[in-house]
Write a structure and sequence with these properties.
Ribosomal Protein S8, Chain: A, domain 1, globular, 14 strands, 262 residues, Alpha-Beta Plaits, 6-stranded antiparallel sheet, 5-stranded antiparallel sheet
Length: 262
């Protein structure tokens, strides 16, 4: 008997066509798992996709799923779907960890550019962790060996690549700069301007150019209202997080605390 999930019912609350397309691919994986009784792993996705698909898959009977990114703090993760009677094992995740060693520091964009330059799709790559001495890349196991044997340089820096274990993943400490400032309102453009110390018009232009994300989704409007714990990223500027609304000033401006990730 063919297993066919009701996509209309599962996706009727999703309005964004691009997100619908990504979620449909994940539902296809779940459907294949139920039909063949074999586990299946999706591509790597950003947190907002993972959150949406988790709410969908939990509605599917006879199916279990696990979210995996190689380590507990991973940002880009994949979903492993498997029959509800099957015992879970990390091997089902099909994740490899490559360590790229170099004599000079290499950056996240350089590593990502080299990998995609080989024809490896972004969706097959999880987190990229850089340190002063090496870089670690979480990848789909099916493309990791290809990357390992086809990369000799990144930029102009010679590198060596080894496969390592998940227990060897080392995250650099995240340094935060705490900013206390005031804004006229909790509009996105004002928060971006205050958090990144740029003119408000520049912030507005960045948002309109789709260079700003709120909670990992491209911001649709400068007028989006920001709440405490919202994470905002801006291309080439970094990330900020609104951590507290302290109160209002005598001039009715809102006093807030922002953490900027260094």
């Amino acid at each position: 008997m063919k297993m066919r999930l009701d996509r209309t019912k599962l996706l009727n609350h999703i309005n964004d066509s691009d997100i619908q397309s990504q979620l449909t691919k994940i539902i296809d994986k779940a459907e294949q798992c139920l039909r063949t009784h074999q586990p299946n792993a999706t591509d790597f996705y950003e947190p907002h996709i993972i959150a949406k698909v988790s709410g969908i898959l939990i509605q599917v009977p006879d199916l279990h799923f696990t979210i995996a990114g190689g380590y507990s703090e991973a940002e880009r993760r994949r979903i492993v779907v498997y029959p509800d009677y099957m015992e879970y094992d990390n091997e089902l995740e099909h994740i490899s960890v490559l360590q790229i060693n170099s004599l000079k520091p290499i950056s996240h964009p350089q590593v990502l550019g080299t990998l995609t330059g080989l024809g490896i799709k972004r969706e097959k790559i999880g987190d990229i962790i850089t340190t002063d001495k090496y870089c670690q890349v979480i990848m789909d196991k099916t493309v990791a060996e290809f990357a390992r044997y086809n990369i000799e340089t990144i930029g102009r820096v010679k590198v060596t690549i080894d496969e390592t274990g998940r227990d060897k993943i080392s995250l650099p400490e995240c340094q935060l700069k705490e900013i206390t400032t005031t804004v006229a309102s909790m509009r996105l453009d004002g928060i971006v301007a205050a958090g990144f110390n740029i003119p408000r018009q520049v912030a507005t232009n960045l948002i309109k150019a789709d260079k700003v994300k709120c909670n990992w989704e491209i911001a649709k409007s400068p007028a989006v209202q920001i709440e405490v714990n919202d994470l905002i990223s801006c291309r080439k500027h970094g990330r900020i997080k609104v951590v507290e609304i302290i109160g209002t000033t005598k001039k009715d401006r809102i006093k807030i605390k922002i953490n900027k990730l260094q």
